[in-house]
Amino acid sequence: MSVEPEVPIVQVEEVRENPVLYKIISSDNHVFTISEHAVKLSKTLWDLITNLGLTAENALDNPIPVENVNGKNMETIVQFCERHKYDEEEPEYTNYIREFVLPEWDRQLLSIDNEELFQLILATNYLDIQKLMDYCCRVIGDMAKDKTPEELRIIYGIPTDAEDDALERSASDSPGPSG
Amino acid sequence: MDNVLYHCNYMEIASLRKTCRSLRDFVDTAKPDGLVDKVMIDCDDYEGKFRLQTGEKVIEYAFTKTMDGCSMFDTDNWTWSTLLKGEDHMELLKNDFSVFLRHQKSLMQEIEINGKPADIEQVLNILKAHSENPKTRKFPLRTSKLSLIDLSAPQILLALSSVDAQSLRSLSFSCNKQNVLLDQITETEQWRRLDLNDIKITVTTAFLNSPNFSSCQIQYASISSESDIAARFGVDGDKWFFRMPNDESRVLYLDIESHEYVDIGYQDTAKVPTGAEIRIEGKPFALEQALNALKAHSKNPKTRKFPLKTTILSLRELPAPQILLALSSVDAKSLCSLSIGSQKQGVLTDDITATEQWRHLDTFCATGFRILDVRRISHLNTFSGLVSSVTAADLEYLKTTFLNSPDFQVCSMKCDRVASYFDIVTTFGVHSPRREWLFRKPNDAFRVLSLSVDSSNVRLGHRNTNTCEVTRPAEIIG
């Protein structure tokens, strides 16, 4: 496992509290340190750690490469996981989520443009972080509040039926791979 | 996408569904939960209303019938509408209700269905179809409370049996008709699981007409105030008795004496406290059948040995024939006081004043009814009411009767026609500028009978001789 020596290591303050630390390398070679409690929020990462047999002694010497997540999203994810590592387990998928009010800290963290949010959701989905996924979806769901269908098309970049039809027509008119 | 839609309410999902084909297909396939808390449907011949509440947010709209279709209104702003040409308001309401049913999966707090029986039937059929369709019945409509207003008994049954029995805790229904049979309703699984902690007085009427009902003890968290219940039944107290339409031997009682409990059950008519008042009131048409049944049972050889005993009988807003029916069905020997009242003007027929019950009365009060033959009140100790006419001969007759009645108290009559002063003077032989005549009572040295007459009122009562003799000794007759 090769690590570029000039790549900065992103330290999270809270990480220092925890004696067991892991290193994660993003697709653009940024290195992140994350505590054991925080990394457990990602099912994908925790499965990797247990499968690789990483322990407190060798964890920092064996960084985990995550090819599908860039440094920007990984930074957000690490911050989120460190912030919520000691959260109590939430109730099952019930009205709790609907009645839940997104904390201001998380709302600030997720105040990013739609494209970035979309990329963050893809990364969250890959790393299988249920809580962050719920929060991201809550932010997207909130965008729909009190909006007309026309406004929703603009917010989410949704094509109209006519635009869909035009795209389909152009797709069917264009020559196939053989033509 | 499921996760995103989980954070959207029903109207937001509906808006998203309109944005594009992909989302429409997804919403129609995935049928995300509507997450509605409360729903209200109200319809009649010309209008259908649909109200959805999620949290604090309420959306209510109405389809109103027009000449060439119908208009859709936002009920917050009735001046704004969308004209839907060629559309039927009921069809649109039914369609929206169907779509709502497809999406609503989570537990609702309340659904209220309100409408004219003929119109609401169509809505209820959709609810029923939803609960029976193999594709949709795995998501039956789940609600904690079901409120049904102005529905017929079969429609109440239809609605009740169409909601999820496991979720329903509170049922409230009201019906203008008196004859609501609860039997089939109480046999449903939904009924058996109810908490029954919010009793409505209308339930009593239902029990009254349910032949299979035996007894009921209801623990309540809240109940109408005693004064409200008393106002409803027209009698003060904390225990009320109701005559059974088909059973003279028993009465239905409702007792709220015990703390946090309402007892409803049967009691032998003979054990009804003699001081208890049995009151019958209601719309004449609705009571007709019950009164006929009462009358029939009072004639039945098997039941007439247990006549309904009451000392006071109050009848409100009943026409004279129904007063006769009610009066003749109670025990004549027990009845002491009869009170009748009506906002309409009526005439008390001779049939009523000829009954045995009438002859046993000692107190009679009436508003809205006239007595044709004033001499028929002469056996009473207390009378207050209207009479058609009083002649001087009638006054002489009443005076003589009351003088000889040891228990006579007072007789106050409002009259359409009263004997002239000249006729009264001629009859009694004494002038009285104050239009009051006093008569010595046999064997009573302390009181005299007083007769006061003006242009439309006659009053007979007692006066103390001490004051009378001092002020007007010459007017005492006899």
Automatic annotation (TrEMBL), chain A:
Gene3D superfamilies (UniProt xref): Potassium Channel Kv1.1, Chain A
Q: Domain SKP1 component dimerisation: where?
A: 130-166
**SMART domains registered for this protein in UniProt:** Skp1 (SM00512)
Sorted alphabetically, which keywords does the UniProt record give? Ubl conjugation pathway
InterPro entries found in the cross-reference section:
SKP1 (IPR016897), SKP1-like (IPR001232), SKP1-like_dim_sf (IPR036296), SKP1/BTB/POZ_sf (IPR011333), Skp1_comp_dimer (IPR016072), Skp1_comp_POZ (IPR016073)
One GO BP annotation is: ubiquitin-dependent protein catabolic process
Q: Residues in domain SKP1 component POZ?
A: 23-85
The record's annotation in SUPFAM superfamilies points to: POZ domain (SSF54695), Skp1 dimerisation domain-like (SSF81382)
Q: Does the keyword tRNA-binding apply?
A: no
Q: What family is this?
A: Belongs to the SKP1 family.
Q: What is this protein called?
A: Skp1-related protein
Organism of origin is Caenorhabditis latens
The lineage, from the top, is: Eukaryota, Metazoa, Ecdysozoa, Nematoda, Chromadorea
UniProtKB/TrEMBL annotation, chain B:
Tell me the superkingdom of the source. Answer: Eukaryota
Instruction: Give the matching InterPro entries.
Output: DUF38/FTH_CAE_spp, F-box_dom, FB224
| Species assigned in the record | Caenorhabditis latens
Taking every annotated instance into account, which residue ranges of this chain make up the domain DUF38? 134-226, 303-417
Alphabetized Pfam families for the sequence: F-box, FTH
Q: Which PANTHER family match?
A: DUF38 DOMAIN-CONTAINING PROTEIN-RELATED (PTHR23015:SF4), UNCHARACTERIZED C.ELEGANS PROTEIN (PTHR23015)
Q: Name one GO biological process term.
A: innate immune response
Q: Which residues form a coiled coil?
A: none
Domain F-box, which positions? 3-29
Q: What is this protein called?
A: F-box domain-containing protein
